[in-house]
Write a structure and sequence with these properties.
The complex is a heterodimer of chains A (about 200) and B (about 90).
Chain A (H helix, E strand, L loop, with lengths): L6 H15 L4 H12 L2 H17 L10 H19 L10 H9 L7 H10 L2 H11 L2 H12 L4 H8 L3 H25 L11
Chain B lengths: L12 H6 L1 H5 L5 H13 L3 H16 L9 H13 L5
The chains are: A mainly alpha (about 200), B mainly alpha (about 90).
Chain lengths: ~200, ~90
């Protein structure tokens, strides 16, 4: 005996391991897919393809490593392929400089006192969910992984295939844009008074 | 404003505010974490900003929905995997 399992037995073992280690993350993968696609039908396709690819490359998964992160990485790649295939525009939010200016500071989005006031008055969950959905995709993915899924910067960087510094800057910009959205949401709802115009 | 923080590196308000999110995310060295924690606890200028950012991140984390993937998605995934050879 050389210690290797017969093919049928080996497949049974792999199936069992996949069922126990990978399938329990289906809800998490679906949530992440939905955060990227913002479309239930697309998320459905992404999740199916993610698990199919994961199963086919299960032999490359290192036992003991983090299965959720591995699945998220596959999910992200599937999403990018889908987007490429459908020739969707890369939604980077248009003009980079304008976007960065929007996201980089607190000027124009109210004072910290106004922000704090908004947090106490706005029903945050629906307002934030809507604002997250409107974020440019690169920022939304970083926010989804770190702020919603609770990943560390290095884990999110690994999933998205970017340096940790890029995660940090995308989070910074994404969070600032979310805060700005909350201010606008609150102003539209009449919960705050607009800042006076400068003459 | 410049506060002297005992037994850790002193940090000015600019440095603290600049690193607030890294601090709240637990992404700094132990030394920097300690320095910011102590600064924020003592600084009347930085505390409101810290409190706001902490509340904001907590609200963001609370948007995570625990509802499962739709059953239809689950069924499709399992059907696809069985077709590929998974024995479940």
């Amino acid at each position: 005996m050389d210690g290797t399992l017969p093919a049928a037995e080996s497949q049974r073992v792999d199936s069992r391991r996949f069922e126990v280690e990978a399938l329990p993350w289906l809800d998490d993968v679906y949530r992440f897919a939905l955060s990227m696609t913002r479309d239930e039908s697309d998320a459905d396709d992404v999740v199916q393809e993610t698990f199919l690819r994961a199963y086919r490359s299960w032999h490359t998964f290192e036992p003991g490593s983090e299965c959720r992160k591995w699945l998220f990485t596959i999910c992200r790649n599937v999403f990018l392929r889908l987007r490429e295939r459908e020739r969707r525009r890369v939604d980077y939010g248009g003009d980079d400089a304008q976007l960065e200016a929007l996201a980089s500071g607190q000027e124009g989005v109210g004072s910290i006192a106004e922000h704090a006031d908004i947090l106490s008055r706005v029903d945050l969950r629906p307002a934030l969910e809507r604002a997250i959905g409107e974020l440019p995709e690169v920022f939304r993915s970083a926010v989804a992984l770190v702020d919603v899924e609770g990943m560390a910067y290095n884990e999110a960087a690994s999933v998205l295939g970017v340096p940790v510094g890029t995660i940090r800057s995308r989070l910074f910009r994404g969070r600032r844009l979310l805060q700005e959205s909350l201010v606008i949401y609150a102003r539209d709802a009449g919960l705050t008074t607009p800042a006076p115009c400068e003459v | 404003m410049y506060l002297t923080v005992t037994q850790t590196v002193a940090m000015d308000c600019y440095d603290v505010v600049r690193q607030l999110w890294d601090y709240l995310d637990g992404e700094l060295t132990d030394e920097s974490m300690d320095a910011i924690r102590e600064h924020v606890a003592q600084c009347k200028q930085c505390y409101p900003q810290f409190d706001f950012e902490r509340t904001f991140l907590e609200a963001l984390a609370a948007t995570r929905r625990e509802h499962p993937a739709p059953n239809m998605v689950r069924r499709k995934v399992l059907a696809k995997l069985r077709k590929a050879g998974l024995e479940v």
